[in-house]
Each structure stands twice: as C-alpha cells, then as structure tokens.
Write a structure and sequence with these properties.
The complex is a heterodimer of chains A (about 400) and B (about 230). By secondary structure, chain A is of the alpha+beta class. Chain A is about 55% helix and about 20% strand. A six-stranded mixed beta barrel of chain A has the order 4-5-12-7-9-8. In chain A, helix 2 crosses helix 10 and helix 10 packs antiparallel against helix 11. Chain A is elongated. Chain B is about 35% helix and about 25% strand. In chain B, the strands form two sheets. In chain B, strands 6-7-8-3-9-10 form a six-stranded mixed beta sheet, sandwiched between helices. Chain B has a four-stranded antiparallel beta sheet with strand order 2-1-4-5, covered by helices on one side. In chain B, strand 9 and strand 10 form a beta hairpin. The chains are: A alpha+beta (about 400), B alpha/beta (about 230). At the A-B interface, helix 1, helix 9 and helix 12 of A face helix 2 and helix 3 of B.
C-alpha cells in the first residue's frame, strides 16, 4: 500500500459524497482562514507599533516637564511646573552613569524664507547628537557644530523637502535662510529617513538648541533624550534620571521620565495577548470544524461497513484500514485547510491594497502552522472513527446492508 | 459421489478439518452453527456444499476463509494449523491463500473494474506497475478486457460477478471460495459464471462452492449436504 494508493482511495471516497465533503471543507477553510487573517492582523499591528518606536531607539529614557499621572495618559500639569533647563541637561551629562548621549529638544513652528520663496515648518532646536541618535547622516555638508548646549549659533541643517522646495536644484550649503525673525546659515542637508515619531524629518530645520530657545523665547526644554548603552537596564536608568532631576528640582516630581522602548515592548505584549485571544477564538471555530470532520467520518464508516468488511476479506490488515480512514480525514481537513490558507492569504493581500500603510502580512510560520493545524485536526478528529473502522469484524460488516 | 467427509484418496489434503465446532450465542443459549465437522479437501477438487439456510455451510466457508473462527476443533491449511494463528497470520491467509466470491459481488462502487481487481494486491504490497498488469490480465481471462475502465454501476450483474472472480484470482490463491456465486444472477448469466468456475477448476484451481441450486451443484466432483451444522 503506497502513500499514493492511500491518497487515491481517500480522494475517491470523498469525491463520492461531494456535498458533504465540500461543506466540511468549507468549515475547515473558515477556521483556518480566520486563524490566518487574525494572526496577520496581530503581527501587522505589532510590526506597526515596533516600527513607530524603533525610530526612537529602544535604549532611550526621555525626560519632559510636567507630571504625567501613571494611571492616565493625560499629562496633569502641576501648578509649580518648573522647566527642565540646559543646566539640568549638563547635570545629567556630568553625573548620570552609563549614559551615551544626552540630547536636548526644543520644538516650534516658524516661517522660513529664502529668496522669494517661503513656507512654515517645524524647527527643532537640538545638538549634533540628535542625528546620531536617530541614526541619520547628512547627505551633504556637515552636522550641527560641536558646541556647548548653552551657546547659540546661527547655523542650521535642513530636511530634504525643505531643500527641494526652497532651493530647488541650487546648492543650499552656505546660503542664508530666514527662520522667523532670525537668519541662519545652511550647513547641511539631512539624508532621507521619512517619518519618525510623528515628525517628518524631511520637513524640519535643525538649529542649535540655544538658538531655538532664543527664537521661540523659551526658558525650558521640550524634551531631554537620554540614550544609555544598548544592554543597559532601562528601569535603572529611569530611576536614576528621576532621582537626579528630583534632587535638582528641590525634591519635587514636576517632570516625567518615560522609557519609550519599554512602552513599545509592553504595547507589543498587549497586542500579542489580544492577538492570541482572537486566534484562540478562531481556533474554536477550527475545533467545531474538526467535529464536522469527525461527524462525516463516523457517517462514512457506518455506511461503508460492507466495504470495510470486504477490504478485510481481501487481505487488509487492521492497521491498513486504520490508515485508509485516517488518511481520508486528513485529506478532508487538509483540503479545507488549503482553501482556508488561499482565502486568508488573499484577504490579507486585499487588506494590504486597501491600507498600504499598515504592514498587514501573513508571516510564513503562520502558513506552516495553519497547514499543520489542518493536518492535526484531521488526525485528532479522524482517529476515533478510523479506529472504529479498523476494529470492525469482517464477517458482520460484510453482511450489513449498505 | 464418495462418502461425505471421506478423506481424499491421494496426496495431502489442502484443507483438513477435524471436529470443527462453531457456536453462536443467542441470549444465554449457545447455538451450534457447526457441530463437529470433519472434512478433507484434496488439491484441485471442486467441492459443493449444499443445505438450507442456517445449515452451517456459509459458516464453514467463512471459517475456511479466515473470516470467522471456530469455537473448537482443528483446521489445517496446507498442513499448517490455522486455529491457533495470531491475527497477522490470519490476515496473510486471507491475502494469499483464499479468494472469496460473494453472492452480492461486494465491489467498491466508486472504483473501476481494474482498481477493484487491484485491491487485494494493494494490501499485499504488490508493485503498482505489476499489479496493474496482473489485474488487466486477470480481467481479460474472465472476458472483461473491454470493461477495465468501467465502474460497477455501469456493469451488468454477470459482469460484476466476473470482476469479483478476477479480484478473487488476483493474488493467485490456492483456494477459491464461492458463496452462492450465481444467487443474484439470472440463469443465463449464471451459466456464464458457472462455465468460468468449471474452467478454473479444470486448470487445477481448488474450488469450494456453497449453493442452494441443484443446477449449480451438478458441477461438483463431490457434493456435501449439510443440516444443523453437520454433513448428512
């Protein structure tokens, strides 16, 4: 009995009852397809979140002024909110151990002007380390100068879109760009990276932090980004930064320290859990479909009892009969599984077309898992009817009326 | 005709039954279907078993074909005791030693004549190419060369029984067992089947036929009549 013989036998038996075979296949297909689509959805959501946060760097601790209540996402401005100042920044840089980069951030909107052209855009006051932190380079010119954070200097690095819109094909390096009321000399152009945490880096102007504070008339920083070593303990870094700032703020917790990497990880975990729950629900439908397979096999064994008797009379062993009927259940559920995989993958592809921004993809392991599950369902729900067929007495079975 | 159950005159019998009993339980009462049967069948014999329904003739055939097991007694097949054999050996006897022909043909309706004839060879593990060859040769031998690709529902009763005979012959078993082989056929097609059986026997095939029909019984070298699980 070759595998081909077994498959041909199973296939011919299933073809003999097309309607019930198709219905059972449909049930398996729905179960498998649902598992696949929901897995793809969950994976997509996780990748999406990870992508959003990856651009921030995972080994990052962020300090911002004001208090964010731990229980809510709404920042509760405490009455005595104090700025996080450049002095705070210098203190962190001096006193916090295990720090790789401490990057100030000030953000404002300003109107740019060059020749007759102008546009409004986001101006980011920071240090040269900002681009390093974001793993960006300048595609031409240089980064911001290596100066003390407290020192203003009228130079800027511009995004690619700004360059194209204001300078066209001309070389922007050395040109004087009006930013609000001040004038900055363009020293570099940022290489392309696109969106990074809601800021399109192609459309920004980077200036030294002190210059931005002067430009926007600010006394404090918007954010301080503290990058620690890749393997460092983020919780420890968070506690240290908190303690240090608290000490400098007269023991008041009028600021917030966040770890985006940890947030991304826990968001990822939450999405993973939701996905698992959804997939589990889909798996229930697969289980129900499995009962359908079992039902079909029970009926099949009952109505083919004379045939089973005959198989034994012409020399089929119990194991061979078991194999034939188990194969029938597996072929049944695997066919349904294949339809479900095709349908699920097609649905995922359609969703990708409809929402191109969302990384809605079926991971390869999910395909294998779906096919494996279909086979597993066939075996799990086919084994009992098949064992029953194998145990039948040949003589009694032969005499049974079909 | 010789004496019922008398030993064969020459050579070792292919089938040797001694004090064979088969009881069925009806409630708490054991009912004997075979009540101590002795039988020797020499190689090449065409033996006919006759008797009313319930006389035990089919039970005897089923025990010889290893479809049923005796309650007590001894069954020797080609000199080997069968009653004590474990199931895998009984499977091999069904595969290699006996071929069954049933009154109701028992073909698998969704398989072609060829596939039906191949079936015993599938279980015996004969190579696909060889078994296809042998199946079509055997179908040709029963005059069905033109029907190999047809399925049983497309065949007449006589043709179906010929497919079943080809299937019984596929493994070239030393013993052919036929249980009312013409019982479901009209007399004309029945005769065709009878001719095939006689022909097979003429070429040395040991053949046991169970029947009600006096007509069919005439082909036997020996006719044994049964009643209440015993030879008359």
């Amino acid at each position: 009995m070759t595998p081909l013989d077994v498959a041909a036998f199973a296939w011919s038996a299933l073809r003999a009852h097309r309607v019930r075979t198709r219905l059972t296949c449909a049930a398996i297909a729905i179960g498998t397809g649902a598992v696949l689509v929901l897995t793809a959805l969950g994976e997509g959501a996780r990748t999406w979140i990870a992508d959003r946060f990856a651009s921030l760097g995972s080994n990052l601790v962020v300090a911002l002024p004001g208090r964010t209540e731990t229980r809510g996402a709404v920042p509760m401005a405490v009455s005595s909110t104090r700025d996080i100042t450049i002095a705070d920044l210098e203190a962190i840089r001096r006193r916090m151990p295990g720090v790789r980069r401490v990057v100030p951030l000030v953000v404002g909107e300003a109107t740019l002007g060059y020749a007759r052209r102008g546009r409004a855009t986001t101006v980011v006051g920071t240090s040269r380390e900002y681009l390093e932190l974001r793993e960006l380079r300048v595609e031409s010119g240089t980064n911001l100068p290596d100066i003390e954070a407290g020192r203003a200097m009228p130079v800027c690095v511009i995004g690619r879109t700004i360059r194209r819109e204001l300078f066209g094909t001309a070389n922007p390096l050395g040109e004087r760009l009006r930013v609000g009321d001040a004038t900055f000399r363009v020293v570099g152009v940022i290489s392309e990276k696109g969106q990074s945490m809601m800021v399109n880096l192609d459309e920004v102007v980077l200036v030294p932090v002190a210059s931005a504070m002067k430009l926007f008339n600010l006394t404090g920083l918007f954010r301080v980004l503290v990058q620690v070593a890749p393997a460092a303990d983020l919780n420890l870094a968070q506690r240290r930064l908190e303690a240090l700032l608290r000490e400098r703020h007269d023991g008041e917790l009028d600021f917030t320290v966040l770890t985006p990497g940890a947030i991304a990880a826990s968001l990822g975990n939450i999405i993973g859990l939701i996905t698992a729950a959804l997939v589990a629900i889909a798996a229930v439908s697969l289980g129900v479909a499995g009962i359908g397979v079992m039902n079909v096999m029970v009926v099949s064994v009952a109505e083919r009892q004379p045939e089973i008797g005959l198989l034994k009379a012409v020399g089929a062993s119990n194991a061979q009969v078991l194999g034939l009927f188990l194969a029938e259940a597996v072929v049944l559920s695997l066919t349904g599984g294949a339809v479900g995989i095709a349908g699920g993958t097609g649905l995922a592809a359609a969703a990708r077309l409809a929402f191109p921004d969302f990384p809605f993809h079926v991971p390869p392991w999910a395909l294998g898992l779906a096919a494996g599950t279909a086979v597993g369902v066939g075996i799990a729900f086919g084994i009992l009817p098949a064992a029953r067929a194998a145990r039948l007495e040949p003589l009694e079975s032969l005499r049974r009326k079909a | 005709m010789t004496e019922p159950g008398a030993p064969a005159p020459e050579g070792e019998p292919i089938i040797r039954l001694r004090a064979l009993r088969r009881e069925y339980r009806m409630g708490s009462q054991p009912v004997p279907a075979l009540d101590g049967v002795d039988l020797d069948v020499p190689r090449g014999e065409l033996l006919v078993l006759m008797g009313a329904s319930g006389s035990g003739k089919s039970t005897l055939l089923n025990i010889i074909g290893c479809l049923d097991q005796p309650t007590s007694g001894s069954y020797g097949l080609e000199g080997r005791e069968v009653t004590t054999l474990p199931e895998p050996d009984r499977v091999r006897i069904r595969r290699e030693k006996v071929g069954f022909i049933f009154q109701t043909f028992h073909l698998v309706p969704r398989m072609t004549a060829l596939r039906n004839v191949e079936l015993p060879m599938v279980f015996a593990g004969v190579e696909p190419r060889e078994r296809r060859q042998r199946a079509s040769e055997t179908l040709e031998a029963v005059g069905l060369a033109h029907r190999v690709a047809h399925r049983p529902p497309e065949l007449s009763g006589g043709e179906r029984q010929r497919v079943a005979i080809a299937r019984a012959l596929a493994m070239r078993p030393p013993i052919l067992l036929a249980d009312e082989p013409t019982g479901n056929l009209d007399s004309k097609t029945g005769e065709e089947i009878v001719r095939i059986l006689i022909d097979l026997n003429a070429r040395g095939q040991t053949l046991l036929v169970v029947t009600h029909s006096e007509e069919l019984a005439k082909i036997g070298h020996r006719i044994l009549r049964m009643k209440d699980g015993k030879f008359l």
